[in-house]
Amino acid sequence: MGKLFNELKQDLLYQHGMNACLNCGVCTAVCPAAEFYDYSPREVMNICHSEDDNLIEELLKSDKIWFCGQCFSCKTRCPRGNSTASVILALRRLSVRYGYFAESEKGRQQLFAKRVFGENMLKRGYTLLAENITPAHFPELGENWEYYYEHREEMRQWWDVPMNLENSPGSHRVIPEKDMEELRAIYQVTGAIDLMEAVEKGMEKKLGSKEEVEKYWQNWLETADSRNYEIKENK
């Protein structure tokens, strides 16, 4: 039993998700992600059960823990009430705290989650704004969405769900600052702010500088594909 496993088992999500695994494989059989990715909930549980820090570190640096879609099918079918989805969340937090997430392409996408969903929460109180869903990034949404994107302010006015008014209807309302201060305090106390900062620090360590992190970010804004950024071997 090593440092990583000791820290992992202190996480409440790990405690709630890991009971006595039978290694039956039902979780993998029902997992939608396992059908399409190199991901097996059964493998994740086995690695955690090993209590081997080397295996856990390898898992934390891999794409595997980022393939889970958090549907919790594993929990509903497990005969012992385990939840690999909960264990995965604990592993993701551990990966971010140690900066291991930056070693995998899927893990590095945490920068996008932090700068879009995380910062939207701290600024506006919800994760996604219409302006985040650009037609260039989501061409599959078609011409109707492109029209809405370009005329959203006037259309929402017409629908009587205006943008950026305090406590107005709809997802573009402005939440009162008093409520936002409470939300930010919750993020601070629960450690979410620390995790968000760890994402920035982990990416800076991996890429070599803040400037390079910004290049990575701009590349994603322009191409919507993190694979288009080439990680330099000497970083």
TrEMBL record:
- Xref: InterPro entries: 4Fe4S_Fe-S-bd, 4Fe4S_Fe_S_CS, HdrC_iron-sulfur_subunit, Helical_ferredxn
The superkingdom of the source organism is Bacteria
Q: Where do the 4Fe-4S ferredoxin-type domain residues begin and end?
A: 12-42
- Cite the entry's keywords alphabetically: 4Fe-4S, Iron, Iron-sulfur, Metal-binding, Oxidoreductase
- Establish whether keyword Amino-acid biosynthesis is in the entry: no
* Name by which UniProt lists this protein: 4Fe-4S dicluster domain-containing protein
Organism name? Floridaenema evergladense BLCC-F167
